[in-house]
Write a structure and sequence with these properties.
The complex is a heterodimer. By secondary structure, chain A is an all-alpha fold. Chain A contains 23 helices and 2 strands. Chain A has one domain. Helix content of chain A is about 70%, strand content about 0%. The termini of chain A are far apart. The chains are: A mainly alpha, B mainly alpha.
Amino acid sequence: MIETLQNLYLGFSVALSPSVLFYAFVGCVIGTLVGMLPGLGPLSGISLLLPLTFGLTPTTAIVLLAGIYYGAMYGGSTTSILMRIPGEAASVMTCIDGYAMTQKGRAGPALAIAAIGSFVAGTLSVVGLMLLAPPLAAFALRFGPPEYFALLLLGFLVLAYMSSGSMPKTLAMAALGLFLGMIGIDAMSGFFRFHYGVVELGDGIGIVPVAVGLFGISEILLTAGQSARPPIQRPKLRELPPSKQELRESVAPIARGTVLGFLIGIIPGSAHIISSFVSYAVEKRLSKHPERFGRGAIAGVAGPESANNSAASGAFVPMLALGVPSGPIPAVMLAALMVHGVSPGPLLIDQQPALFWGFIASMYVGNVILLILNLPLVGVFVYLLRVPYSFLYPSILIFCILGVYAVNESVVDLWIMMAMGALGYLLRKFDLETAPIVLGLILAPMLEMSLRQSLAMSSGRYAILLSRPIAATMLFIGAALLLLSLRPLFTSASDWRQHAGLEIPSTPPNEEK
Amino acid sequence: MRSSGSARLKKRNNAGPQAATAKNPGPNPPPPVAKIRNDHIAGLVLFCFALAIAWEAHKLPLGSLHEPGPGYMPMALAIVLGLLGLLVTLRGGQSPLLQSLHWPEIGHAGKILLACSFAALALERLGYRLTVIILLVFLLGVIERQRPVIVTVVALGFSLGTFFLFADLLKVPLPRGPWGF
């Protein structure tokens, strides 16, 4: 405990330095804007700004990018509550009761509870990150290639099981992503795979053009040309404070959302999205007045908003402790670390204590900054939402082109971005998730390398995956999840989503008819 | 008697084809409505893509089960993807009907992709600023039909402003045109 406090002191000495503080502030502002503006989620925002961090130190780069990530969780609730348009996917559930509260003239309290819940969850989950990451990293030093292979395979199965869509479709998308990750040179044999003579593809497909294309460009293709948005309410500062009853009713959902979000955040997948869905379902199930959900229940705002912020911190646990990204956003942040010459993995915390603890401390600071930004300045941010979308999407498009080009100064990346944009458009039309593709792309090299190294270690025997207890345990859990997901095919049992009473919209959230 | 018979005959003649369907379906029954669903198409496309991957992967050294070569994992993925595609197709009965899918934005989307293609072709030839100006004029002026004055101001301002911010201040390498602009 004393060592942790000493490390935290080191962290705050880094986080409160002027340059780190400045970039934390910039990250939070950009994250709030990115979260608020439909069509530009945190993944696109982080991917676009990644090239700008090349000139920064590793600590300031990771602080800036993390600020965008959890800032987007705060900002996404604003459009959800005021306009019933989720700024980013994790705020879909907030739309339901948040907008209902706005219609009843309670927009201010809804925004306030969302911000307070986000702050509490964000702060407490950073404590969890601080306490969990170092011992997990120490445990992970026992991991070898078989354990990493089992972990990554388990990650895909958990992602598919927890996703809102069907498991076969999610796994198919993950397989597609894994295939994209195999384009380029094979690290073990030196063979070029699937590059068709294009020199730039020899290095493989970058994550930035794929992420920006699948999320940013596809969103623009789906939503450009939409009809005018509903009028936006602009709550005044004096209307923000919630009533005592609303505060009382929010305490338990915030607490539950924090714990739930953090635990789900550790699991690979689009944790911040899944956590908000699960939290909504739990609150509705536990509520004494479930009939209020959908009509302005404060728990329907407090729970999901707390969960998605907490999940954002939870996602950093495997990223920092194991060097394994639990989703596309941590993956881009890991890429940022690698560009700066920092090797992610279990040794990161010991070898780069200033970076790790500075990052942790900056998250505390960032949560305070966001609470200040999101409440008093909500009126300022709302002005931005009045910009007609016909002007907004061309700007976003140009930022996408600029950001993708700047990574490698390669026009091939622009073509990849466009192809992914068109693909993302079609996939979303056919109700196929795009996040597993990005996860597959990132994890493909690690998955293949760890399998081939495991077989090299065991002279070609697959039994090594079962003879090592940690790997065997993870594979057993994965197999159990697979069998559980197949159960509805053979019995009349419903899957966990139906049990939880989740109704997941099948059309993209921004599709207004 | 005669009037009731003729009344019955008149009634039968005026009833129309639907009255005949109970015992006689009629000479030209309506064709069955196609029940193709979204997942049928999605699964089929995935299966075909899996076949394509398998075809390309077999050109690489596969190695063996115990010593995988560079083609091993892609081939394994192709098999998994093919099976998943088949599963999605077979379970497709639960998905929405294909004809319920609407594409109101597809024209807009096509034009945007065309604009992006122009940007990819022109960026290193004309430079960032000129490309962005032309792109914004097309998107705002042609597609969105905004007023020319607004289009001009936004196109020039955005192009020059972002170039100054990113290239001059933040040192992001953005291409310049043949005239240094």
